[in-house]
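Problem statement: downstream parser choked on a complex file, so we are re-checking the raw output for the adenosine-5'-triphosphate run. The parser issue turned out to be on our end (a line-ending mismatch), but while we're here, posting the original submission so the record is complete.
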Amino acid sequence: MQENNFGGLTSQEAERRLKEYGYNRLKSKNRKNPVGIFFSQFKDIMVMVLLGATVISVFMGEIYDAVTIILIVLMNAVLGFIQEYRTERTMEALEKLTAPTARVIRDGKEKVIDASLIVPDDVILIEAGDQIPCDGRILRSNGLWCNESILTGESEAVRKGSHDNMVYMGSSVTKGNAVMVCESTGMNTKMGQVSSLIDEAGNSETPLQRKLGTLGRVLCLICAAVCALVVVAGIIRGEPIFDMLMTGITIAIAAIPEGLPAAVTIALALAVRRMMKRNALVRKLHSVETLSCADVVCTDKTGTLTENKMSVTKIRTSDKEFAITGNISADKCLQELMNCAVLCNNAILSENDGIGDPTEVALLVAAKKCGISPESIRSGCTRLSEIPFDSESKRMSVTVSGHPGTKTYTKGAPDVILKTCRMIYTESGILPLTGEKKRELYEEIDSYAAGALRVMAFAFTDEKTGYDVFLGLTGMLDAPRAEAKDSVKALRKAGIRTVMITGDHKLTAEAVAKEVGILRRGDMVISKDELDKMSGKELDKIISKAAVFARVDPGDKLRIVQSLKRKGKTVAMTGDGVNDAPAVKEADIGIAIGKNGSEACKQAADMILLDDNLSTICEAVRQGRTVYMNIRKFVRYLISCNIGEVMVMFLSILLGLPVVLLPTQILLVNLVTDGLPAMALSLEKSEKEILRMKPTEFSGSFFSGGLLGRITIRGILIGLCTLGCFAYSLYLGCALETARTCALVTLIASQLIHVFECRSEHKSVFRMNPFENMALVSAVLVSAGVTALCIYVPFLSVAMETTPLGLPEMAWSLIFAAGVPVASGLLGLITNRE
Ligand code: ATP
């Protein structure tokens, strides 16, 4: 009955046209190419400073220094390039995965294809929630409404049909369905013409990155001031100007945490990849951070908390109840109810399973169990029109001819259907639906719903009288997912409340909510009627106690999110239908359901759940928190090390000592400590207790929990011990070059020790197994190896102006390095800080 008569293109024809017209894409986004990525590495401040240093060196005839600096700049650029290139690839893969798809008729069959492969004359099926993939003409439509705000700025949806039969790329279907034929694609569409709209690629800088960027700029300013101070002080003291300029530059190099913003992006991108493996597709990077501090998760019931595998277990006609355990034989009333269930239905039953809405598939399966063949009912009818189901009206109607004559069948939420019914279909014909009978039916509905059944009612419109005639009810079982209970529990432990928002009956919702542990003593269940009566303020008062919102419309979700946000909550909200899109957009973390989710909702979402599972949200929170903690870890590491380096240089000048480290040596320190070890920290696995911490621990200032104090103290200790080692070496009569090499070893070693301490904010380094993060162990070994090479390989040691250290020098250098954690521990004991 519902097959279309539109043959569509053949695959060969489509291929030919694709060659002729090109891909159905708008001007491609500005993804960087590898060459661009490489050259962008030279744009940052540190490289500018270094290039300044090179120019000064060349000018002063220090060609050796200049070459070394350039080599190190190149190595830094290569490292940066590798990291950024990988991030770009991940983002590109993500974009491909989230690219819109479209349902087309090709070779006479319905196929889902990438929207970019659509060509002119393709026949496309669209329905509520879809984004229109190209410009085209409607061939047939059922109550089609489109939102064309992206083109016209008009936020009201417009009716499409015979009077206005053009639809445009970028607009979305808000209601109904249609078959359209493509007329233009890509840049030939209206959207293509308004190409200024397209460069909305946007700046994907995350709030955290912005915070860190500001921090970086503050540090730069401080360092510029310190540099100026040192240079001026040195020159006044009579030091050579060139030496002082170089020292100033060295301090600048030491202080700029230039790798930080890149490291954050990489950490986030890695988390995105990990989440993808766990079925959570992140569309916007910043949502990874936001996830860490989510404190309310608002979720649908069907599919997320339940299996979305419906089966009809009970059917109730005017005066009989049927338990659908095995096959049963249908009487007249059941037969008519099933006619409605089969005809007012868009699902198809194949041999092994069904295609379409699981609710509708369940009805077809039930019909078969009643000995009724859906195919034979459908083959005798022609559908004349359809008012599609949507979560707002909670009903669906079709008018069919040939049964015999013309008949309108309706199915939907029982309260909605019963409201309009004045008659009831019985064995003895159509009778008035009395108040008493209605009450009896409502009681029946409540008892079905209290048993966690999803209830649906059926009716038809009597042609003679124009009255709606009630046919009966079905009760469907949709079992809670096995993982739902554990996920709700895990989220609660993590300080996150789960709220169920459903279009289903209050009692069904309540029963399921109790079963999965969302509804506990003292919690409230709010129905749409109650919600409608509440003002915004009244809603705000009870919102923290509400665990279930039942029989609500998608539009109500927006009110709920806004109320939660007014109460200062960070809200994650799931959605699937097109009407959910505003709420999903409004939520701090909008989550689209992947399997049956509409394109509009997916486009509005920050994250897509590929398996529609609440446990995936739980996992995503864990990943979000892990990445936040890991970023804190490497910020702690990088900044304390930078402070240490600046302290060494600054104090040596203040104390009138020779310059401790030369520019090339500071560059070496940056290369071996800031690069690999910091990156390896972002690979740290999540700590066990991460899901036992409260959301507030992730939402405060980035340096909350005394982190800034710890960072500063550690930086000062690194600086003092390095300076101590340098002074001690000089005191023992070592040559300046040897003393510098000793200081270099102390500085690098103390940082490489510190990186292990940064693995956890809660556990001491002795309580952690260092081999849990083999990447970190390897990174540290590589860094130590490179340092050793720079000291012991003759030509490298000449370039770095180091001297090979003997055993005693090496020993005291390392002892000074070990002094840092010891001093820090003692300080902690005294101040009770660490
Ligand atoms: P959730 O919002 O958690 O997914 P839900 O699936 O029950 O819950 P809706 O899809 O909005 O919410 O359905 C609301 C009600 O509409 C259902 O309880 C059911 O009675 C009725 N209903 C569901 N699907 C259909 C359909 N295809 N045709 C007619 N009525 C339907």
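For whoever reads this later: The first helix runs from residue 11 to 21.
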